[in-house]
């Protein structure tokens, strides 16, 4: 919020250039008490010198302080030069290791189907661009299209990541793998961020919309419940480095047609 502060204007002070210096002051003046001052000075001086008794008595403590300071400096020099060397104990710095380290794999788990493994290089690239785990990106591709860039759902979602049309600009090709991945990963990243990185909630937001996921699991559509069950199970197995996944096999039993279409589209051998 911006505020328009009104600056107060101040009038400059005007000085008179005609000020005249008064040089008529006399160098000497008549002091009616002059004689008294002289008398007092003569009384306070000692015989044989021109210093007042107050000045003389003030020098005595100063001299004593000076002698004491010299003696202290001599003692300090002796103490420093004669001080024996003492070996100080060394301080050991303990290296505290974190309980867990964040490790992002640069390769995919071998459990994904060949039609998803086909996109391995691109998946790693897209995951790196959005700061995501490649295995999570592959999990979404697996259950969304099985790796078919031409996949279309009954709801109108298209491409590798089944992105709805309203996420694209008018000039964009939703079937282009890179464009589709950009829009899909953008929303997945946003969904994960909305739920503090929770994978289950992030997947629910990707499937049902962030607003739909926010209503609570009890209010999720049955499709979203199945989606998160498969997604979380497959991702956990992939993250663990497993070569097989019971959850993926269960999903494949329901998605045979979709994966066969992906194999044909990519020219892979069944």
Class of the domain at 114-266 in CATH?
Answer: Mainly Alpha
The CATH architecture of the domain at 114-266 can be named as: Orthogonal Bundle
Quick one: how many beta strands? 0
Integer-rounded radius of gyration: 45 Å
**Percent of residues in beta strands?**
under 5%
Average pLDDT across residues? 76
- Number of DSSP helical runs: 11
**Spans of 5+ residues with little confidence (pLDDT < 50)?**
1-60, 86-103
Q: What's the end-to-end separation, in Å?
A: 62 Å
| Topology order in helix (H) and strand (E) letters | HHHHHHHHHHH
The CATH topology of the domain at 114-266: Lysozyme
Helix content: 40-55%
- Going by helix content, strand content and strand pairing, the class is mainly alpha
The backbone outline, from C-alpha atoms, is elongated
Largest sheet composition: none
């Amino acid at each position: 919020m911006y505020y328009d502060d009104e600056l107060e204007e101040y009038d400059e002070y005007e000085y008179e250039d005609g000020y005249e210096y008064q040089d008529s002051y006399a160098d000497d003046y008549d002091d009616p008490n002059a004689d008294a001052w002289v008398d007092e000075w003569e009384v306070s001086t000692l015989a044989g010198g021109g210093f007042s008794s107050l000045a003389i008595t003030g020098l005595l403590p100063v001299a004593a302080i000076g002698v004491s300071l010299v003696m202290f400096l001599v003692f300090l020099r002796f103490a420093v030069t004669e001080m024996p060397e003492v070996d100080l104990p060394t301080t050991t710095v303990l290296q505290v290791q974190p309980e867990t380290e964040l490790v992002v794999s640069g390769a995919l788990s071998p459990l994904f189907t060949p039609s998803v493994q086909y996109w391995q290089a691109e998946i790693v690239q897209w995951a790196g661009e959005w700061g995501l785990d490649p295995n999570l990106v592959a999990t979404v591709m697996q259950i969304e299209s099985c790796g078919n860039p031409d996949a279309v759902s009954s709801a109108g979602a298209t491409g590798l990541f089944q992105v709805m049309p309203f996420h694209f600009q008018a000039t964009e090709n939703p079937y282009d793998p890179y464009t589709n991945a950009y829009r899909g990963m953008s929303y997945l990243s946003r969904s994960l961020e909305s739920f503090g990185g929770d994978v289950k909630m992030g997947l629910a937001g990707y499937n049902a919309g962030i607003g739909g996921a926010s209503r609570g699991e009890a209010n999720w559509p049955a499709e979203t419940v199945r989606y998160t069950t498969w997604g979380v199970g497959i991702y956990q197995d992939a993250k663990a480095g497993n070569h097989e996944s019971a959850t993926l096999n269960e999903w494949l039993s329901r998605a045979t047609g979709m994966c066969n279409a992906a194999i044909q589209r990519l020219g892979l051998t069944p």
